Amino acid sequence: MDVFALFEGRVTDALIASFPELADNRELLGRVVVEPPRDAAHGDLSTNAAMVVAKPLGKNPREVAAAISERFSGDADVASVEIAGPGFINFRLQQSVWHKVLSSIAERGDDFGRADVGQGEKVNVEYVSANPTGPMHVGHTRGAVYGDALASLLAYAGYQVSKEYYINDAGSQVDTLARSAFLRYREALGETIEIPAGFYPGDYLVPVGQALVEEFGNSLLDKPEEAWLAPVKQHVLAAMLELIKADLKKLNIEHDVFFSEKTLHGPGGEIEKTLAWLREEGLIYEGRLDPPKGKLPDDWEDREQTLFRATQFGDDVDRALVKSDGSYTYFAADIAYHRNKVLRGFTTLIDVLGADHAGYAKRIEAAVKAVSGGKASADVRFCQLVKLLRNGEPVKMSKRSGDLVTLADVVEEVGVDATRFMLLFRRNDAPLDFDFALVKEQSKDNPVFYVQYAHARTFSIFRNAARDLPDLDTSDAALAGADLSLLATGDEIELIRLLGSWPRQVAAAARAHEPHRLAFYLHELAAQFHAFWGKGKEDPSLRFVNDDDPKLTLARLALVDGVRRVLGNGLDLLGVSAPQELS
Predict the structure, then answer these.
(1) What residue stretches are annotated with the Arginyl tRNA synthetase N-terminal domain (predicted)?
(2) Which of 16, 28, 187, 287 has the fewest CB atoms in 10 Å of its CB?
(3) Are 252 and 324 within 8 A, CB to CB?
């Protein structure tokens, strides 16, 4: 039962009943929202309905609010309606409504909060997509966790989601990787090597060099680079991709599709086809670009070149597609790749990129508008940098990767749960401090411990009930039959009210592509639950288990079970375990 969606429907019905001329204006009615009031003292629900429709109706918002309010005079679920400020309408609900919410949680179980916001829309979430040149580092980790949690959230909210990894295996960095691996191959054959500047120095290439010896023996030593580069490149790319998959597996991340950039290139490839299509559509022309303002970038060229009409689709400048040497620009490959996604039927394309790609959003959004005829949209999400600390001091770098702390380093030290939750406990576009000491601390200052402890505490309460009231039936059927009208204190209703906002949180987070909202909500729910438990230590009448009142105990256990289910659902969406006990 989604109280907010339920009352949005009722408010819309009240609007149409009062002002029939609004019935066909779905766009206007779609702007009506029901949400918690900013101040909880003002009631349970608040709506902007009167202010949304007042101007089109040519009426005063408070006049409209009065007409809407009158429609709720006989609503059995509404205790009172008040008009506030310029025309907000605040509702106070009967306690029985919140009891129905709690019953709904028990009935729906893991599906409480599951929505059909997406209505089956096909969404492609492309995330991580790190160059296959080494192990995953902590910068990749944040995008990996964000993208994975977002994909889970969207699927839970009714979208048809595909999780994709774009393998950047066509650039010059792959040739450099192959040359670096060839040095390790020579090292494995007994040579003393020096790794030049610009090569990949990490120890992770040592086993690759050894594997090359096992496959080729010393047969590559006397061959020129043009002879050994291709087979070494193929071998090292496969090895790096397996390394990346193994790293992601440590975070329980698995993609549905691994898309190779190489497949876009070559005669008759996707890039060539895409540029031909764009030319037919009149979206490519030969021209010169004005020099950018400020310091000229190294890759700017004052010459006649092939340009995409990106400004026609909202970009700041038109974009070059072909370099002076005749090869394609990175953007040409980007257009072809996103057109490929559109041709596969996706209508929302989400790209999760690192902070170093800031500025890519407009060009990608323009490209998707162009290749889809405006039928698909792109949402480019950037993950800001992660600063690794230990007791407030910067963490030293990893020898294995050469110069970076790896994903494996982080997971090995703090575990999957802490890694995932802490990287989601902040907006993706805000810098994040990750302190190893804090995330391993078992205290209320550690958000992941605090939330998991709340979930474990729900099981502890049930164990205490079994010990103190051994004859009390606490099965799902018994909890479903509990007399919930006994839950009448302000603390009880407040906790149920927060549980009842879970479906709204899921829907809003899915629409906004912001899984961090779920982490924030779970932390708030845990805090409220812990606070309730703490009050029971001071006031025996507020304890969840009351030896002298089995009926009240059963009702409160139904409330505890609701907390358990919502915490469990939320942690599962974030890819974090929900333990029954914490050591």
Answers:
(1) 5-93
(2) 287
(3) no
Classify 581 as helix, strand or coil: coil
**Residue 525 pLDDT > 80:** yes
**Alpha-carbon distance values, 65 to 13, 86, 89, 539, 564 (Å):** 14, 9, 7, 42, 39
- Residue range 210-218: mean pLDDT, rounded: 97
Which two tokens mark 412? 């090995």
pLDDT score, position 179: 97
Number of C-beta neighbours around residue 255 at 10 A:
22
Adjacent-strand bridge partners of 163: 125
Calculate the alpha carbon distances from 373 to 54, 145, 420 in Å: 35, 32, 37
Q: Dihedral sign for Cα 245, 251, 257, 263, please.
A: negative
Name residues whose C-beta falls within 8 Å of residue 119's C-beta, 6 or more positions apart in sequence: 158
- Asked if 570 and 446 touch (Cβ cutoff 8 Å), the reply is no
**What tokens appear for 108 in the block?**
């729906």
The one-letter amino acid code at 412 reads E
Interval 512-520 mean pLDDT: 98
- In whole angstroms, how far apart are CA 572 and each of 27, 231, 252, 569, 583? 35, 42, 12, 5, 20
For helices 407-414 and 225-250, what crossing angle results, to 10°?
Answer: 20
Q: Is the separation of the CB atoms in 377 and 220 below 8 Å?
A: no
